Fold each of these.
Amino acid sequence: MLTVMSTATSSVSAPACCGITPELALSREEAERTAALLKAVADPTRLQLLALIRDSEGAEACVCDLTAPIGLSQPTISHHLKVLTEAGLLRREKRGTWAWFALVPERLDDLAAIFR
Amino acid sequence: MLTVMSTATSSVSAPACCGITPELALSREEAERTAALLKAVADPTRLQLLALIRDSEGAEACVCDLTAPIGLSQPTISHHLKVLTEAGLLRREKRGTWAWFALVPERLDDLAAIFR
DNA sequence: ATCCTTCATCGATTCCTGTCAATATTGATG
DNA sequence: CATCAATATTGACAGGAATCGATGAAGGAT
C-alpha cells in the first residue's frame, strides 16, 4: 500500500503544461505516512542499530549490546531505539532488567516495497 | 553495495553480551552515505515530486508542471528539486527557459536495494 | 533595447532533530 | 528495605531543514 514508485492505483491524468492542476499521483496524507517511515531510517545511527540487531542471535539484542559498538551515550541509543520502535520497525520486550529489541520483518517489507 | 538489511559482506562476529565491542555490521561511513540518500526521500513533498515526475510523459517534467499541484511556493519546489538532484535521484536539463527534471532509474534501484 | 516568463539564489524565520548530562524508574539481589 | 544495575525520561543546547518573500539571472518575444 505504501508503494510510491510503482505506477499505482491512482489514475494518470494527461500531463498538461503549466496552468492546469492535474490529479496528484500521490496524496499528501500517503506521502506523509511514507515519509514518516523513511525518516525513521534516514539516520546513520539508526541504520547501524538495525544492522547490529539483524546480525545478533535471533535478530534481537539488548541495549547493553548496542551502546558500546556505536559509541554514543546510552540515552541517545535509547532515544533512537524508541524512534525505530514507534515507527513499527522494532519490537520491544522486557525480560527482567533487560530490554530486548527485535526486528519486525513485515515492517521492513513495507520499507522495501516503497521503491518497488 | 548500499544494502543494509541483507546479510552483507562483513563478517558476523559472535554476539557477546555487554562489555565486548563486536565488529560493526555497518561502518559509520557507509551508514552515513545510505542515510544521506534516504534523507533525500524522507520528505512528503519530495515523494510527491518523484511520483509526479514518474507519471509525466517520458518520466520528466518542468518546474511549472510541479509547482501548482503541490501547492507550495516556487522557491520551495526549486529547493526540493535541488535536494533530489544532488542526491542523484533526478537529472536536470535546461531547454530554453524551461528546466526539465527526469528520474534516474539506477539511483532509484540503489534505494530499492537498501532493504533488499 | 525592453519587457516578460521561467527558474535559481539569498536572507530570514520557525520548527525539528540529534546529542548529552542529570535524574527518574524499574527490577533484581543481598 | 537498601542498594545496585539496566533503561527510560527530562531539560537544554546546537545544528539542520522547510518554508516564504524578495531578488537575481537567463532566455524569448515584441
Amino acid sequence: MGRHSCCYKQKLRKGLWSPEEDDKLLKYITKFGHGCWSSVPKLSGLQRCGKSCRLRWINYLRPDLKRGTFSQQEENLIIELHALLGNRWSQIAAQLPGRTDNEIKNLWNSCIKKKLRQRGIDPSTHKPLEDDEVQKEKAASPAAAPEPILNKFVRPTNCSSANYFSLPNLAYSPDCGSRIGQSQQLWFNKSDKFLSAAANSSSGFSFTSVSSLFPSVPSSGFSSSMELKPLTSLIVENSPPGLHWEAPNSSNSSWSSGAGDSLFDGNLFPCTQMMPERESHAHFHSQSDDFKWSEYLLNGSFPLSTELQSQNIDPCCEIKEEEPFGIEGLGFWLQNQQQVFDIRET
DNA sequence: AACGCGCTCAACCGCCTGTGT
DNA sequence: TACACAGGCGGTTGAGCGCGT
C-alpha cells in the first residue's frame, strides 16, 4: 500500500483537482502535448505525479470527451460489448467515442448491473438468473421496468441483449452436402460491428460457410474430412480488414481469440468443439471503423458493389439504431435481403 | 433542520506489461 | 538476463450530493 513510486520522491498533491491545476494542465498539454507523462507535472508547474496528470487529462480535460448521461443506445452497446469482452473497460470505451473507460466502468457498476438483474439477467455471465435470484431481485425492486418484449427467434443464451439481429436457419448449405443443425444461426448486432456464428444443436455437428449462405459469394473450399469432426466452422473468404475472432474453448469456460490471418489464406476456421450441454459461439469483428457486416455478407466483399449502389439498396436499412428491435424489423430485413438476391439473379 | 442512507463519480491503488539500458 | 521505469488497466475508495424520514 501507499503512494506510487513516482509520488514518494516529492511531496505531491493528491485528491480533487482545483480549477487552477486544471488550467495549468490544459494549457500545457494544448501547447506542448503530453509527451512523457512523468515530466508533465515538472514542466507545467504542477505538484502532482505524472499518473495523476494523465488520468485527469484522459478522464476530464480531453477536448473530445462527450459529456452528459449515456443514451439508451450507448447503454445497449455497452451491454453487448460486455457480453463479448467482459470487464475490458478500455476496449469497450474504444467503441464509444468520447467516453472513458472509467465512466463506463462507473455506469456499469452503479446502473447497468442493477438493470440487468432486474430483468433477470446475470450481469457477469449475461445468462438468465436462477429463479430464486430473480424473485429476490424483483422483491428488492417491485417497481422495476417490465421485461422487454423479445422476438420469437432463438437467441443464444450468452447473448443477453435484445438488440441482436438474428438470421434463423439461414445456415443451409445444399452445395457442400454438409449436415446443418436446425439451430445454427448467424447474426450480427445492431451496431453492425460484430458477427456471431452459433450452433446449439445437441445432436451432432454442423458447419457452414458464409459463401453458402449468400449465393453471390463464391463457394469456399473446405476439407471434406471436416464433416466427420465435431466442429462448428465459419469460412470467410476475402476476410474484411483487421478481422478478429473469439470462440469458447470446449474444455473449459475460457475464450480463445486471434486475428483473421488464417482466414485470409482460405483456411477453415476451427471455431470450437460442439458441446451438447452448452452453446457454441464464435464472434467476429473488424477493427475497421467503417466496416459493416451486413454489407460484407450481402455483397461478398467490401465495400458495396456498384450494382447495389446503383439500385440504391441499403442492406442495413433495418439496422436503425433508434428503433426498438423486434420481429417486424427482422421481417423487413429478410424481405429486403430477398430483394437483393432477386436483383442478382436477373 | 437534522440525520441516515444510497448513489455517483473522480481519483487513487496495485498490478501488469512493454521498453530501454 | 536483470533491472528500472513509464504507461495502461481494472478494482476500489471516499467525498459530495440528493432524497426520504
Amino acid sequence: MFDLILKNIAKHIQLDKAEEDFFISVLQHKIIERKAYLLKEGDICNTENFIIKGCLRTYTIDENGVEHIVMFGIEDWWVGDLYSFLSRMPTAYYIDALEDTEVLQITKKNLDILYERVPKFERFFRLILQNAFIAQQNRINQNLAFTAEQRYVNFIQNYPQLEQRISQKQLSAYLGITPVFLSMLRKKLVHR
Amino acid sequence: MFDLILKNIAKHIQLDKAEEDFFISVLQHKIIERKAYLLKEGDICNTENFIIKGCLRTYTIDENGVEHIVMFGIEDWWVGDLYSFLSRMPTAYYIDALEDTEVLQITKKNLDILYERVPKFERFFRLILQNAFIAQQNRINQNLAFTAEQRYVNFIQNYPQLEQRISQKQLSAYLGITPVFLSMLRKKLVHR
DNA sequence: GTAATTTATTAAACTACTTTAATTTTTTTC
DNA sequence: GAAAAAAATTAAAGTAGTTTAATAAATTAC
C-alpha cells in the first residue's frame, strides 16, 4: 500500500528506515467511491492527498451551474486545495472521484510535525510544488496562446493515458469549451 | 538597497545577522532599462530575480507574432522562469522591462549553496512558491469560468496599482483578448 | 437484461471576441 | 518642442465557440 508513495518520495529525497516508518505512521488511508466527494466548496481542506488508485478531479461550479476543471489527478499525483489547506479558510473547489479511488492523506498538523521531525520533507514538498507550478504556468500560457483545437490536440498528445480514462464531458470542462464544441472538433479532426 | 528583500524574507523566516549577511553576499544588483530584456526565448534562465524597483513582464510570442503575458512583476515580487532555472533547459519565455527596473539576482549555484548553508531558505522558497501556485490556480479557474468582461473587472479590483502602471495593450495580452476588444469593453463599462 | 440515466452527436441560430483598417490621442525621441 | 512612433478608439465584417434542441449511443442501476 505504501510502495507507490515511498517511490514517489525517493525520486526527490532519501529517507532512512526510521524516517520512512515515521512518515507512514502519519498517513491515513481513505477510499473515495466513484461520484463521492473528497472536498466540497465551503469546506476547509484538512489534508493533502496522494492517489494510489483511481482518478479525481478538482473543479469549480460557476454561477450558471457550469463545471470548470482546474486539474485531474491519477495514481502518483498529489491533490488538495493548497490555499484552504494552508490558510484554514473555506475552499472554492470541489474534488470528487471519476473512478473508485484510494488516497493516502496527511493532515496539516501532521505535515507540520513532519517538517519539524524530518526537515528533508521541506525540500520534498518544495520540489513537488515546483513541478506543479511549472505545469500550471504552461497551462496558463496554452490557454492564452492556443485555440481550443490546438489545446485538444496537445492534451491527447501530452496525456494519452488520461484521455482514455475520462469522458469528453470532463475533458471539455478542462479545456474550457462545451461538450458540443469538443464533439465538433473531434469530427473535424477525424476527417483529416 | 537590501531593505525590501530582507523585509520580504522576514515575513516568512527569521534570520540572524550572519545569515542575513551571507544571503546579501550572494545577491547581485542589476539594472534593466525600459524595453531591455532580462530573458529571451532560448536562453537558459540563470537567476531568480527580486524586483526592488520597476515593472517586468513574462510573456511568450506565438507563431503569429502575438504576445501573451503569463505574469507581471513589480516591487517585492520574484520573477524568473523556474523551469529553465531548475532544469538548465532553454526557456520558452521572454522577460522584459515595462519601466526602468532594478533587481537583486541569485544564481542557481548560489541558491544551492544557500540551501545548504542556511536550510531555512528551503522553507522560504517553498512559501514563496506556495503563494505563486495559489495565485496561478486562481487565474486558471478565472480564465475557465469568467468572460473577458468579468476578468477585466476582477483585474482592476484586485490589482488597482498595477492597472495604473501598465498600458491597455499589456493588460489585454494578460487577459487573453485583443486591445481592440478591451477598448470596447471599457467604453461599454463607462456608460453604466 | 431491461429501464433509466448519462453522454455524445448533429444541425441551426446566435454571440463573444477577432480582424482589418482608418482616425485620433498619447508617448517617445532627439 | 516638433517629428516620429506607439497606443487607443471606432466601425464594420468575419469567425471561433455557444446555445438550444432533437436524436442516437453508451453506461449505470436494479
